[in-house]
Amino acid sequence: MSPQFPLSRRVFLGGVSALAATAVTPPMAAAASPASGGGEVRLHWLDGRPAAPVGCAFGVPWPRGTLSRNVPLALHTGDGGEVPLQSWPLAYWPDGSVKWTGHAVTSAATADTFALAPGTPAPPPVPVTVRRSPREIVVANGTIELRLATTGAVALPSLSRAGRVVARDGELVLRLQDQPDDADDTRAPRREDWTGIVERAEVEQAGPVRAVVKLTGRYRRDRGRGTRAILPWTLRVYLGAGDESLRVVHSFRWDADENHDFVRGLGLRFAVPLTDEPHNRHVRFGTAAGGVWGEPVRVLTGLRRDPGAAVRKAQTDGTATPPVAQWGQQVRDGYQNLALWNDFTLFQESARHFAVWKRTSAAGSWLKHAGHGDRASGFGYVGGPAGGLGFGLRDFWQRAPRSLDVRGAATDTASVTLWSYSPLAPAMDLRTYDTVAHGLDLSYEDVQEGFATPQGMVRSTELRLWALAATPPRDTIAALSATLTAPPQLVADPGTYHAAGVFGRWSLPDRSTPARAALEDGIAREIGFYAEQVDEREWYGFWHYGDVMHTYDADRHEWRYDVGGYAWDNAELGTDALLWYAFLRSGDPRTFRLAHAMTQHVSEVDTHHSGRFAGLGSRHAVVHWGDGAKEARVGESFTKRFSYYLTADELLGELIRSSMQVDETLRTVDPLREVLPPQTKAPARVRIGPDWYALVSNWLTEWERTGDARWRDRIVTGMRDIATFPAGLFTGEAGGAVGFDPATGHLVNLEKGDFDGGYNLSMAFLGEQILWEALDLVDVPEFRRTYLDFARYAQAPSAEKIARYGRDFNPGLFKTIYSRVTAWAGEQLGDASLRKRGWDQFTSDPAGKPWPPAERVTGSAVAGPVTEIPTRTTTNPAGDFATFATNDFAQRNLATIALLAIAPEEAP
């Protein structure tokens, strides 16, 4: 914690300090809001009340000056009941007041609505406790106890309920092979099993409502052969007071050799002790539609002879059968000769199909037709009346291929493996898709030697483990499955987020005129189109889920999945931000899920977190990390903050902080190396936009998270430097090239191409929002004037530019992208004509018009029916031939949302 903001986390975590007076609410926060009534924030479940009780974490914003750093917070149900709550600060305003708080509730939070307000939080009946010794950390909550190792190959030594061990010997497993399955080599791939070795353990939260323990390590070969250690990983374990389940988040960072290391399996394995008779042991798998596949280890139904109705019912219900003496005589005498089904597998091979396999032993064949369906929920169970282990993977079918394995169910100890990447699928191949370049001019593909690498990419998997007292009823399994399909999430109303003054300038929906209603309908319709495209085009998979495609090929009736830079979008031009703004305005659950998956994807898969490109991300490409344009704006913090602050997710917070490595990376990776000759005036070279804007968003986020004024000062330093440039924000070749010193944050005018920088995308990647928010937090009058000058004349007619600068110039702007900058100048200057100019630029741009309703394409033109937007052939200023593209979708709707906030009176 910064000395500037010396708040002890204990104040929030324990919540026992006295209330302090709050400051006067500033004008923006004083607008009508659910949050302004006595400091109370109303909360509700995103998808309605959870189907089954599980805990969750969430974030809440506070208007500037309204929540002092030493004020504890309490949570009540809608009817006034107390709810145990754990709180901690996530971000601060410049005056030191709290901007965002993070919170955790347990499975006891079962009401429909809640109210968060200053007050002493209710303690849980039995708090969660954490005990640490040199060899292990023990987390307990009165219901279950978990032991975690501080070092070694067994990460989770045991999980117990009421003193009975439900699972033990939990270890991270990796299966690796040395070539792809279809290599030209005549020999079979050589496979090896690796184990995740714990190297460090850290207690991040110690109760009383929730405990969080973080383990870190690397994978090493089994049996200790060799010294190589790869794929650094983290494992966070969350346990709430009174919960019977725990949340586990595993992530790994790629640092292996993609040309020789091919992942064949990645998972978490446990041993599960079993004591019930085989006919009372049950295996269960859930489906996303609420169904359950469930069978016992020894099947007593469907026999030639009837064991009795009570026996059959117990087998289907998962309860203990009556004593053997009460069975039908012929079954009673011969049941021990029946098959014992020892091994079970649920394999989700694609987003459209799963199969259940079972077998008696490795000496026999699998029955691969034991069950099948389209989408499994990722929930599994093995156990009996004496108890068992429930286990599950979030985004199970969306991140296929995945599988759940139960081995040894007929023995005293079963082995359960949750495969986040299934060994039944082809080996993971992270090489780029081709070995030659295909031309930037035609395929929009920027290929550079050594740049198409996954080094430093991250992928995470969320798991949940239930220590259950007995085999759960089928309806309970369906409910537990629902918590994996759509994990419960507490959120506030749109008005609360808007009144808090967070995330720059955005509007609440406005349907006051037919034209404005049409704009609002366009936003909703187009988001719905993308949600349907994700499913129709199956944009799923371990590495793909969360991304969408960039541009459509109307002739093939297919997105350009194989055309250079037109394939995966990688959140180009703010697709992720658009989805988050749309959620903040609407509260729509589907939009939240789309946005959350995209942020997870971009922050993990599209951003390098170590190696040569640390802090940079990859531009849109056929392979997510395949493009040679490594950009600071892909990994920038601004677009990741939405998800981080709304969900208080620790891993995402780490990844956001990891992006700050980009300052030093820019010393060796010049974003303009292919465009301009080297320069010697500064240690590095960046474009004011989008590079410096991305750095500003990183510094701003770290400043508000820590209160450390060093990061604010870097923003101020750059702003003051830009204010001295003769051309201000029109400075620089290739869209704003300037010198940059990573050590100090200073910018240097390279004195080339002022005003005539050409193709200008400086604001295309949320640059305007980053600067609006920064200027709201720091007072740099000279930069505000410089920015206003740019905004005032960026889309001005020639006569106005000549009158101001003594010359005419064309900054090469996109009308929709810069319309909100122009309108902002009008707002700041009180000039209605400028505000109207912004709207006129937007409404006169073909890219600014909502798409017509989608149409179905059927017949022999396609392999199967598809949905697409009717063709609207355009040629943009870059000379690109296009039909419809995600860039237009993102920028058009971002413009609508911002313009309605900045110039509402001039809206259509």
From TrEMBL:
Transmembrane segments: none annotated. Residues 128-481 form the PcRGLX/YetA-like central beta-sandwich domain. Residues 40-116 form the PcRGLX/YetA-like N-terminal RIFT barrel domain. Residues 487-907 form the PcRGLX/YetA-like C-terminal alpha/alpha toroid domain. Residues 1-31 form the signal peptide. Keywords: Signal. InterPro entries: PcRGLX/YetA-like, PcRGLX/YetA_2nd, PcRGLX/YetA_3rd, PcRGLX_1st, TAT_signal. This is Tat pathway signal sequence domain protein. It comes from Amycolatopsis mediterranei (strain S699).
